Amino acid sequence: MKNTLLGSLYLILASSIWGGMFVVVKVVVSVIPPLELVWLRYLVAIFALLIIGLITRQKWRIEKRYFLLIIAIGIIGNAISIVAQETGTMLSTAQTGAIITSSTPAFMVIFARLILKERLTLKKGISVCLATIGVFLIVGIGKMSMSSTLGGVSLVIAALSWALMSVLVKRLPSAYSQIVVTTYSILVALIVLTPFVLPSLHEINLSQLTHPTIWGGLLYLGVVSTAGGFLLWNRGLQMLNASSGGVFFFFQPVFGTLLGWLILGETITKTFWIGSVLILLGVLIIVKDRQEEHNHSLSRKQTNFRRHNNGNFR
After folding, report:
1. Global pTM?
2. How far apart are CA 14 and CA 166, in angstroms?
3. By its UniProt entry, which PANTHER family does this protein fall under (predicted)?
4. CA atoms within 13 A on the CB side of 121
5. How would DSSP label each residue in 238-303?
6. Angle, alpha carbons 225-82-188 (nearest 5°)
7. What is the pLDDT of residues 152-184, one digit of tens each?
8. Domain locations in the chain?
9. Number of helices (H) and strands (E), helices first, in the chain?
10. Contact (CB, 8 A) for 79 and 193
């Protein structure tokens, strides 16, 4: 039960951080193009993660059999997904971005079934449906615009690739530190993106980078959103199963809307609060379902233990 609550808290914090990311990206991407922005935020994140790793004295050794998995996580989740997300955010409306990326948990349930063979339950289905309805109410179905086809396609790719990455993380042993895993996967993405970014870096107006809003946004994206958010998300997924953990992704548009209201002066309607309640219900169902699974597993182990001991006394 402790792991369930702690894992839930990690995932809620990660989603909240990423909710603020949309507001920051909208501002920073006006100066730095999406591909270059992802590369710069990873450059900042690598330094932050290395400092954290050195302070906490992490063990950086990874078994060779997990190399390909780390590379896949880096390319799929840290390179393809984030570049697609920031490109889609730039090309489409915030409402469109929130709607499409909120499909990630549904994709996670599917990938968890295909890759991890996780059991699909009625409660998981209900929780995803409630959270999905909540997101649609928050962002407003009537306001959804798909005028930019490229932006919409880019966001779908972001949702699919992030869902796949989140499931692949579960294939790594829980003994590996999330600091180490996150650092290596981001390093992979940085290496992959470098050949595409270097030729165009000179086109960025360096004088604009000195503006507090821009460098502050880069620090948020690199340290808080990338280093902090990825660490919290990956750690939370290790404590919950992948299909259950995905539901917490729905907190992202909730906090994105709140920050949009606080920072950009956007209006919050009654449907926002109704949608938030539905999302919360969906998350509570998942937590309760996870607790029941844990209790059932514990009860089964105790029964087997008693049977084993009774057999020894005969």
Report:
1. 0.71
2. 13
3. EAMA DOMAIN-CONTAINING PROTEIN, INNER MEMBRANE TRANSPORTER
4. 14
5. HHS-HHHHGGGGGHHHHHHHHHHHHHS-----HHHHHHHHHHHHHHHHHHHHHHHHHHHHHHHHHH
6. 90
7. 778 778 888 988 998 888 888 877 887 888 899
8. 2-198+210-306
9. 15, 0
10. yes
